[in-house]
Amino acid sequence: MMNLNETLPICIAGQWRLGGGERYATLYPATGEPVAYLHAASVADVEEAIAGADHAFRTSGWAQKNPHERAAVLYRVAQLIRERGEALAQMQRLDNGKPISETRNLVASAAGTFQFFAAACETLEETLTPMRGDNLTMSVYEPMGVVAAITPWNSPIASEAQKMAPALAAGNAVVVKPAEVTPLAALELARICIEAGVPAGMISVLPGKGSVIGDAITLHPLVKRVSFTGGTTTGKHIAHIAADKMMPVSLELGGKSPTMVFEDADLDHAVAGVLYGIFSSSGESCIAGSRLFVARALYDGFMERLAAGAAALRVGDPADERTQMGPLITARHREGIERYVDIGVTDGGRIRTGGVRPKGEKFERGYYYTPTIIEGLSNDQRICQEEIFGPVLVAMPFDDEDDLIRQANDSVYALAAGIWTRDYKRAWRIGRAVQAGNVWINTYKQFSISTPFGGWRDSGLGREKGRLGILQYMEQKAMYWGMNEQPLPWAG
Ligand code: NDP
């Protein structure tokens, strides 16, 4: 593991050295204290990393290995992540302030992702297609070359694994641009990959400002694909660059996901599910269930229970195993959330619970905020439409299914949705009618690496995970082998 007491080197095509950009500190969101110092990558570092990656791709032999050989290395990556799981989870906690119970899950997910894509790599089939004429026809896959992974700060190790594992499994070199404020997990994952046997030049990790480093990577002609997770504005910017380069991209973007509670729901489950859906990860989650619709007949009683549950959540020290909600990522992000709460109130919303920073000595230095529920707004108002990315839930009653579906789908986003009902026919009807990339029925925020994930509309393009996730990092090629004893007619 890295020594956090030293200024950290970054990884430039397998070379570990100080970045050429400005020195900065990453901060522990629970206290505001420095966790590690490093120099950001410079644009010259980006150039060197991509040239080195391209060289490694052409010369290291990684892409030419048999799939089971690449898989064996990636299985070792999974094993090393598990062996160092606790240290990685603690490092991730310091990096972004999530409770330790959550960062342990993220580390387990990262290991599982490498294991899954190792399996996908060694079981990937290429197709012999039906013949039409005297050609043997087949569809095969090739690695792309240098691919880029750009990740946000909210679930670093899992986001990075989700891109690095399939990219490497497919035989590519990968250049990772982690969020400036959370670079540690990506740096450590790079070390683990190299230790496990990925040729060093195949991996770069370039922390730094997205507007500088991210653009330099995305615009680079040798970068053949970008897999991006982050905000919709940045995603659209990357999509424009990709259009100019004719480069494939996948974009996992924001959300404003509706959760719908019907009269016949199991209320114990629904209350717990709604709380978990919005307030876990302090609401800093693309799939946060941030818009709540409750059947009118149920509304008052349900909101009473929900508000009491939110007020009782254990907000505090991320190192405490019992903590349910840690701090927000930065002081600036908390200010942004506070501005949204003010907008909600100015627009006529009532704060049902929360809406303030928690009081007490243990909260003074960290970027904490209380779980917040706002009522009295309609779905077309600003805080019901814009992604807040924090622990703020807007709650509204609904009258009937048509009214509900109209409101649930009235959003530029379409990433996720939650349905709480005991009526399986209704669950099916609503589940099919709601526009979202991911629908949870009587549960929320559950994931499986085998199930493709992504959003519609402003929530993104493309899918990650699933067996076919590896194909996003490959080019498809049709091959025709002439089997005819005769030459083509033009031969004279
Ligand atoms: P950003 O889009 O600001 O940042 C995401 C990453 O992109 C960071 O590494 C950032 O660098 C980088 N970046 C910024 N500008 C550029 C650029 N011009 N070119 C290339 N890269 C750039 O998002 P946030 O940090 O605000 O992350 C939160 C967002 O991510 C939310 O909207 C959330 O919904 C979304 N998200 C989506 C998920 C999904 O799977 N759909 C999962 C998790 C989050 P820097 O560090 O400098 O900001």
TrEMBL record:
<keyword id="KW-0560">Oxidoreductase</keyword>
<feature type="domain" description="Aldehyde dehydrogenase">
    <location>
        <begin position="19"/>
        <end position="478"/>
    </location>
</feature>
<dbReference type="InterPro" id="IPR016161">
    <property type="entry name" value="Ald_DH/histidinol_DH"/>
</dbReference>
<dbReference type="InterPro" id="IPR016162">
    <property type="entry name" value="Ald_DH_N"/>
</dbReference>
<dbReference type="Pfam" id="PF00171">
    <property type="entry name" value="Aldedh"/>
</dbReference>
<dbReference type="InterPro" id="IPR016163">
    <property type="entry name" value="Ald_DH_C"/>
</dbReference>
<dbReference type="InterPro" id="IPR016160">
    <property type="entry name" value="Ald_DH_CS_CYS"/>
</dbReference>
<dbReference type="InterPro" id="IPR015590">
    <property type="entry name" value="Aldehyde_DH_dom"/>
</dbReference>
<dbReference type="InterPro" id="IPR029510">
    <property type="entry name" value="Ald_DH_CS_GLU"/>
</dbReference>
<feature type="active site">
    <location>
        <position position="252"/>
    </location>
</feature>
<dbReference type="GO" id="GO:0016620">
    <property type="term" value="F:oxidoreductase activity, acting on the aldehyde or oxo group of donors, NAD or NADP as acceptor"/>
</dbReference>
<comment type="similarity">
    <text>Belongs to the aldehyde dehydrogenase family.</text>
</comment>
<protein>
    <submittedName>
        <fullName>Aldehyde dehydrogenase</fullName>
    </submittedName>
</protein>
